């Protein structure tokens, strides 16, 4: 309660659900994405619902480091700094290894990996300079970051999520070496019904619907509940990875 959380990719899907859940719990949440109008709408909804926290929309293209650094500098000026960083923004372009476009691969690396690393570094520095020892960095990973469950159009995406697995474990080790109690956790979902599959299939509604109609999918709110669970763990408990799949998901 009263702590400042940054949620990346808060305009729709999992990020929007997480932002809403944390505002409901009384946190001051900076939600960022490119479509800031959607976060503004969510902020108004949270206010009308009488939630005790606040949602502060921030427009940021996470594939641009300068924009990320400006955002952290604005958070420092306006809200002192970040206590909780939820690296949620991510995407899967449909670009197989044998035929995909380099631009699509680069965009996945920029958002899924580089932006996550930059936000992690900046959030840690913000915690360190304010002696915040109970901070938390949560990375929204994927089942695809633990095993190659995907079809060929998702191999590159899986590679970026394997990187998230490695970075979260590396972060946990670096935090210990720095003698801080700041924690690092991955949350790894299976299929969640959001805009993810629409974007993956270039907004082809039939292909996306086929993904979401094939089984009873997770909801974005299920992932928000996992975030709340992770944040509610006692300070001595390090939750490394939470894996959630729909019951009907096979692989
Ligand atoms: O996806 P979606 P999810 N700069 O498409 C933002 C992982 N995951 O909520 O900029 C800034 O509804 C985008 O904002 P906007 C997945 O890998 C999902 O399902 O306005 N923001 C939007 O808010 C990802 O890490 C599933 O377009 C950028 C958000 O990202 C996380 O869950 C399964 C951006 C994407 O919302 C959230 O995905 C799984 C940029 N350049 C893992 N580019 C699943 N849904 O099935 C994108 O295993 N965003």
Short description:
The chain is of the alpha/beta class and 251 residues long. It has helices at 13-24, 36-48, 65-79, 102-129, 155-177, 196-200, 205-214, 220-232, and strands at residues 4-8, 28-33, 54-59, 84-87, 136-140, 183-189, 192-193, 218-219, 241-244.
Structure, explained:
The chain is of the alpha/beta class and about 250 residues long. It has 8 helices and 9 strands. It has helices at about 15-25, 35-50, 65-80, 100-130, 155-175, 195-200, 205-215, 220-230; strands at about 5-10, 30-35, 55-60, 85, 135-140, 185-190, 190-195, 220, 240-245. The strands form 2 sheets. A 7-stranded parallel β-sheet has the order 3-2-1-4-5-6-9, sandwiched between helices. A two-stranded parallel sheet has the order 7-8. Strand 5 (about 135-140), helix 5 and strand 6 (about 185-190) form a beta-alpha-beta unit. The structure holds 5-hydroxy-NICOTINAMIDE-ADENINE-DINUCLEOTIDE PHOSPHATE.
